[in-house]
């Protein structure tokens, strides 16, 4: 049966425009409400990692990219809750997370730091029994995006076993047609990216549907738009 795979940069739980309070729990519940198989998240506050399983009903594996500045995730949360629109990620740090349906079994979790300066960025990778290798990356925007994205692609490529399906998802911070990485990954056998988007799911070694981005109304709660990114999804297998 095909697997439903999603990726979403949750913007530290902020709405658009940012408000005094955050909406991270609402975001996690929304993106998992229809029982997807795999959800890759970026810009997750470090304090929230321990809550993801309760909010989603899925298994959660986190990888901390930037630690909280005060070395306390909980203190960072308390300060940020004074006004999310002002503090955003300044105190909470940030992480990647992969959510898995309970029927899936993960092993061989690895993490690579893809940044070489500035804000710390990571690519998180796990192997799922009878599915393949999944990478979840968030790279820095600007001139370094292409090299960080390529580093993530090379990381999952090196980890993959012969003929093993590979899924690389996340916030690439660079659109198709810019830089060299998308072309390089296609030469390695990865699928076509979502045109015009910095959020991507690329697949190699397994059939997949074209990636699709959620329309704005699907990520709204009432008249509130959640995150400055849209979830992207496709089906694999």
Describe this structure in words.
The chain is 20% helix and 32% strand. A hairpin with a 3-residue loop joins strand 7 and strand 8. The strands form three sheets. Strands 4-5-3-1-14-11 form a six-stranded mixed beta sheet. Strands 6-7-8-9-10 form a five-stranded mixed beta sheet, with helices on one face. It is built from six helices and 14 strands. With 237 residues, it is an alpha+beta fold. Helix 5 runs parallel beside helix 6. The chain has one domain (3-236): Deoxyribonuclease I, Chain A (4-Layer Sandwich), CATH 3.60.10.10.
The computed structural class is alpha+beta
Per DSSP, the total helix count is 6
What is the fold named in CATH at topology level?
Deoxyribonuclease I, Chain A
Q: How many strand units? A: 14
Distance between the termini: 7 Å
> How much is the average pLDDT?
92
Strand order, largest beta sheet: 4-5-3-1-14-11
């Amino acid at each position: 049966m095909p697997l439903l795979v999603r990726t979403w940069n949750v913007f530290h739980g902020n709405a658009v425009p940012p408000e005094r309070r955050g909406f991270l729990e609402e975001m996690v519940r929304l993106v998992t409400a229809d029982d997807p198989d795999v959800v890759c998240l970026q810009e997750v506050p470090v304090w929230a990692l321990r809550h993801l399983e309760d909010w989603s009903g899925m298994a959660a594996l986190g990888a901390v990219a930037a630690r909280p500045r005060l070395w306390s995730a909980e203190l960072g949360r308390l300060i940020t809750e004074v006004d999310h629109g002002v503090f955003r990620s300044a105190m909470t740090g940030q992480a990647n997370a992969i959510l898995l349906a309970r029927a899936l079994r993960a092993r061989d979790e690895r993490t690579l730091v893809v940044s070489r300066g500035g804000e710390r960025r990571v690519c998180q990778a796990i192997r799922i029994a009878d599915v393949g290798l999944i990478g979840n990356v968030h790279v820095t925007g600007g001139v370094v995006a292409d090299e960080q994205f390529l580093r993530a692609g090379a990381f999952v490529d090196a980890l993959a076993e012969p003929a093993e399906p590979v899924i690389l998802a996340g916030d690439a911070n660079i659109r198709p047609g810019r830089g060299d990485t998308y072309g390089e990954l296609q030469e390695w056998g990865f699928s076509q990216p979502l045109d015009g988007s910095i959020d991507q799911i690329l697949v190699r070694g397994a059939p997949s549907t074209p990636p699709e981005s959620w329309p704005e109304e699907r990520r709204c709660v009432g008249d509130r738009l959640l995150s400055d990114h849209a979830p992207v999804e496709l089906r694999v297998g």
